[in-house]
Amino acid sequence: MKRYLLILFVAFVVIGCRKDVVVFIPEIEDVDKGDTIVNKWALDNEFESIDGFYLLNEGNMGSNKSTLDYYDYASGTYTRNIYGNANPTVPKEMGDVGNDIAIYGDRLYAVINCSNKVEVMNKYTAERIGQINVPNCRYIRFHDGYAYLTSYAGPVQITPDYKQRGYVAKIDTATLQVVDTCVVGFQPDELEIAGGKIYVANSGGYMVPNYESTVSVIDIESFTEIKRVEVAINLHHLRADNHGQLWVSSRGDYYTVPSKLYCIDMNTDLLTDSIDVSVSNYHLDGDSLYIYGTEWSYVTMDWDITYGIVDVKKHELVTKNFITDGTETKIRMPYGIKVNPITKDIYVTDAKNYVSPGTLYCFGKDGVMKWSVRTGDIPAHFVFLGKRKKTL
Amino acid sequence: MQVGRTEFVFVLLLFICSCVNAQQTEVPFDTLRNLDNVVVWGSRDKEIVPSQKLDGKRLESLSSFSVADAIRYFAGVQIKDYGGVGGLKTVDVRSMGTNHMGVFYDGIQLGNAQNGQVDLGKYSLDNVESISLYNGQKSDIFQPAKDYGSAGSIYIRTRRPQFDEGKNYNVRVAMKGGSFGLLNPSVRWEQRWTPKLTSSLSAEYVNATGKYKFRYRRVLQDGTTAWDTTAVRQNGDIQSFRLEGSLFGKLIDGQWNVKTYFYDSEKGIPGAIVNNVWKREQRQWDRNFFAQGNYKKTFGDYELMINAKYAHDYMRYLNPDTTLMYLDNKFYQQEAYISIANHYSITNNWDVALSTDYQFNYLDATLQDFVYPKRHTMLWALASTYSLGRFRAMVSLLGTHIIEKVTRIKYAEDDELLPGAETGTPDNTNKFTPAVFMSFRALKDSNDLLFRAFYKRIFRMPTFNDLYYTDIGNIALKPEFATQYNIGVTYQHDEEEGFFRHVEAKTDVYYNHVDDKIIAVPKGSGQYRWMMMNIGLVKIKGVDVQMNAVMVPHRDWMLNVSLKYTYQKAQDFSDPTDNDPVAGTYGGQIAYIPWHSGSVIGNLTWKGWGMNYSFVYVGERYHVSSNILANHEEPWYTHDLSLTKDVKLWGCKVNLALECNNVLNQQYDVILNYPMPGRNWKGIIKWNF
């Protein structure tokens, strides 16, 4: 009897004691049959072949759980949380709230919003190269050896009210140092570089109800703001198409002003058109703008979710539901969207309740689900890893 | 076999030794008497289901700074502790959520209509005489209707003046100091003005830098260090001042008291430690004032009790950090409360009571589009107790009627009111909630073996934040219900002589479910937009085991040991679609609730010396109800030791104490990314005139 008590006691001590926490071991899952993605008819700037994609999970604010996942086409495997394993010596892992991800040259850049930095990694191994320190950084684009990064944390004005302008930081990708800044509007979000100009969507998200409503136009050569284009309140994303047009999304005010899609002519820098579709996030592939919109309705006390495609040439909403097999009913909170430019497979992520693991859905171009896989918390931002016909 | 036995004895000895380091600061005779009071659970006459209670020297010796620190030792309790002297500490009993707990200060509930949470870290133990925890409710029927209104209740009772023969005053000057730059002087003055009128005045000042070293470490699979980093917790400073004054009066067959309380503090909010951000700048100011009174009188078989309170609370939150959204919000809350409780003994074994309460709450805030809610709460409770031989029962019914009014001043640009439900006033709430408590004395001639059971259904109102906080609030929210079923047994035995003077064992098995649980859900368009909704469902199965023994190993020596253990399976059934067998939240253990938790307190006294050992254990948990490795939290446990000595100095009684907390310097988080302090020290001197 006593011996059993002893065993019980020892067992309790062994099981009940605190153990060292092991850095994250990546979890690998087979999700699809392996496939080699080669584009036989690649045009300039397009992918000749695609090896896979990275998916950046935001992680809920304060959780420090921004993680990086990778999908490999050749093996059809999805690997969760590769950063910790690739960089076991980095304290507190990748950081808090990943907000954007991009590849430029041989490097992978992950914008970690609440960690006030851009994590710079080797694009093949995700091994850390260094970091760019920019407070409250949001979105990143590249041009001619420089990275351009939006930040909310610009100069503060106290009188009459507290206001803080945002800026675009110009970063030398060789030294990872900020070499210049250009002050723009309040709380600038996404930026786009086209035609020697940088377009910045100003949101004014901290200034409710006095949202910003302009796109800042920066001359890339002089790195100064040359114009403001009045669009709509609370702007978020912008993307240039092949027809000299810039597609800008407005979040609306969540009450009376709905979310909407706007079009700017980049030759004149004037607002030319708008399309009545709610846009939370989108991806442009050729002339097809794949959109999802989640709009909270105070009338139904529920979300209105649309999965649409806009033809940017015709300025037409082609479909209001590109998911054709009913899978949309399973998706609670769509958060990220991407389209494989070669296969036209559509990727949509579900962030669910924001605090538990999300799901990545892969749809064929016919809108039928091919596979789905568990991700990290708040799966959001994609970047393809592959060979481009002509490097930027 | 022989070896096994020796080992066992050794381990047992080690275990006992570690329990034995106790403290008691009075001469054994007094101590014994005191402890007998301690171990009696509640008052056997009035309460059908006992409470867990800490009081007197037992409470004093626990190395606790705030009420929250002391409550950790109760069974079934989880504390959410964000760390440090000024860090937020809230209590969750039997996994029903903080908002279901009622905290009563000298008999009247501490309210927070704004967020429904009482920060127990704010309440110092300096002037506290006892803390009791009741599951369900206090099963005494002569109480205000509010006391029926929570799923669990904590009663904090401040010290009442007591005077030695021929002495009309007591003055105590105390000083505490130690780690975290803590400096905590306090003074208490008690005076007997007439045989029927006494007063007490207590003042306290706390100043701490809140700095402490913490360490995070990860290893590789082979056990070698991957990274290991040590830093100092910043922005955890606090400065607070408390002033509390009371008058106590005696009447023929009755009593009255009035009390005023003032608390003022400024503190830093240390925040989450995340990659590249090791220091935060947010600050918070609190100013709380309340005045309350109690009047109680017996008229033969009839008893009357009147309680009244007025409270004014101010809170300011400032985020000056330019890397985040600037915030400077001020909140002003007011509360007025009156209660009349009536009790009548129909026969010797049949009592009835009727209580009626009215409460008014108002919240003013410097928030965009704020609606300035006013809440009128009317409560009545009808209750009865009945004894039949060895069987006792209590039945109560609580009626709650709530009328809420909001003032909207926000119009859209074209001067039209905002659309939909947002313009509405919430529906009036009318709810009736019952409770049944029973006990059965199994042995004919003693109270030693008691069986008990209770059932209770109660709800909590959505808080003002849940309903109206700009953008997050949801005016369509309904109350959140908690239903509890509990059966339990207590065995206890007292002896005048011998080694064991008192032994006690209690076990309770319970099942709770919380439905229409109010949880934050994403609202789309980026992760900073949330919405409160009634979509949660949690089912909790649990067991509480408590053991207590008082031993006298030798003349002048006394040892008091208590053990508590809690098992809880608290499952999240909110989202049936999130049912992935590995990572799904459906059926997962809810956030921060360990399956296993417990505490050990050992207390050894000898003449004027006392030694106290306390141990708190919280087993493995997950920080969300998706129970996967990425969300796993390791167990944590702390050992605290203290040594006390009473001396006479120039005719005054002086208590000296030295505490060492978290002796083994464990580095742990209670809440993800909020590191807790390692080993820390405190010295205390109390001078009694």
Overall description:
The complex is a heterodimer of chains A (392) and B (689). With 392 residues, chain A is mostly beta strands. Chain A is built from 2 helices and 31 strands. In chain A, strands 1, 2, 3, 4, 5 and 31 form a 6-stranded antiparallel beta sheet that branches. In chain A, strands 10, 11, 12, 13 and 14 form a 5-stranded antiparallel beta sheet that branches. In chain A, strands 6-7-8-9 form a 4-stranded antiparallel beta sheet, with no helix packed on it. Chain A starts with a helix and ends with a strand. Chain B contains 5 helices and 36 strands. Chain B starts with a helix and ends with a strand. In chain B, the strands form 6 sheets. Chain B has a 22-stranded antiparallel β-barrel. The longest helix of chain B has 19 residues, at 2-20. Chains A and B meet through α1 and β24 of A and α1, β11 and β12 of B.
The residue fraction in helices of chain A comes out at under 10%
The amount of helix of chain B comes to under 10%
Radius of gyration of chain A, rounded?
22 Å
CATH topology of chain B: Maltoporin, Chain A
How many distinct beta strands of chain B?
36
- Which geometry of chain A do the CA atoms define? globular
Q: How many strands in all of chain A?
A: 31
The helix-and-strand class of chain A reads mainly beta
CATH domain class name of chain B:
Mainly Beta
Oligomer: heterodimer
Summed up, the helix count of chain A is 2
Largest interface: pair, residues per side: A-B, 79 and 76 residues
Strand content of chain A: over 45%
- Overall pLDDT of chain A, averaged? 92
Low-confidence stretches of chain A: none
CATH architecture of chain B: Beta Barrel
Which structural class best describes the helix and strand composition of chain B?
Answer: mainly beta
Distance between the termini of chain A: 75 Å
Largest sheet of chain A: 6 strands, antiparallel
Distance between the termini of chain B: 59 Å
